[in-house]
Specification:
The structure holds two protein chains of two kinds. Chain A is mostly helical. Helices cover 81% and strands 0% of the residues of chain A. Chain A starts with a helix and ends with a helix. Chain B is mostly helical. Helices cover 84% and strands 0% of the residues of chain B. Classes of the chains: A mainly alpha, B mainly alpha.
């Protein structure tokens, strides 16, 4: 094969590979794919927080978690609830945005709300629990933290982080 | 006013231009890519809407769990 033909062939193959990979993996095409991943993980966070709140209520009902401690934890869970509203709005705006700079702005906003939610959950860890409630509540808090970590990892990837 | 398709074209063109500085060939690649993306986007958009609906439902469930707690243990009753 002549050098010029080989070079043209190489370029065509490379171009075809990019076109195919972009179609097969739309995320390779930048922000063209609606980021359903964040919504999925966001649902997981809310689900874990709901289970935590139900656990707090149950532990209080059972008398193993003092009311004052339960109220402190619930106040932090309520912050998760309050922040999840704007987070949902930002997700919708991210999805609806057509301009790349707007999408990047909304992605940063989403990460900000997630950081706020993460802070509220971390504060729950600072609440000292009576021995009878430690295992049950810590396990539920751990599940929320795991869900939050998954969201942060996904959003960081979306913003070009690792 | 830039349509979504035009913006998509611009975005994809910019991405491809980073890799292959051959404008003529890029044009062919972009047209093929846009056609494929346009086929894919409605499905992805529906997927997003479904996930957002689940998110809203889960948020409502969390709100209900918090309300349930405060009904039983109102904050005013604690010193």
């Amino acid at each position: 094969m002549k050098p010029i033909l080989r070079k043209t062939y190489t370029v065509c193959v490379l171009l075809l590979a990019i076109v195919i990979s972009t179609a097969a993996f739309p995320s390779c095409a930048g922000n063209n794919k609606p980021d359903t991943t964040v919504a999925v993980y966001g649902t997981n966070v809310l689900g874990a927080a709901t289970e935590l709140q139900k656990g707090v209520t149950a532990a209080t009902d059972a008398g193993i978690l003092p009311v004052a401690k339960a109220q402190t934890i619930t106040a932090h869970v309520k912050i998760v609830y309050d922040k999840s509203g704007p987070l949902g709005d930002a997700l919708r705006a991210y999805h609806a945005a057509t301009a790349l700079d707007v999408r990047n702005l909304k992605a940063s906003e989403i990460q900000g709300w997630i950081a706020d939610i993460n802070g509220a959950i971390a504060n729950i860890l600072n609440v000292s629990l009576p021995e009878g409630a430690v295992a049950q509540i810590s396990s539920l808090v751990g599940k929320v933290l795991a869900a939050i970590s998954a969201v942060q990892a996904e959003v960081a990837k979306g913003l070009g982080g690792s | 006013m830039v349509t979504k398709a035009e913006q998509t074209l611009t975005d994809v063109n910019a991405i491809l231009a980073q890799f292959i500085p051959l404008v003529g060939l890029v044009g062919i690649g972009v047209r093929a890519t846009i056609a494929l993306l346009k086929e894919n986007n409605p499905e992805l958009a529906r997927e997003f809407e479904v996930e957002i609906a689940k998110y809203d439902a889960q948020r409502a469930a969390l709100g209900a769990a918090i309300d349930d707690f405060y009904e039983k243990y109102p904050i005013e009753l604690v010193e």
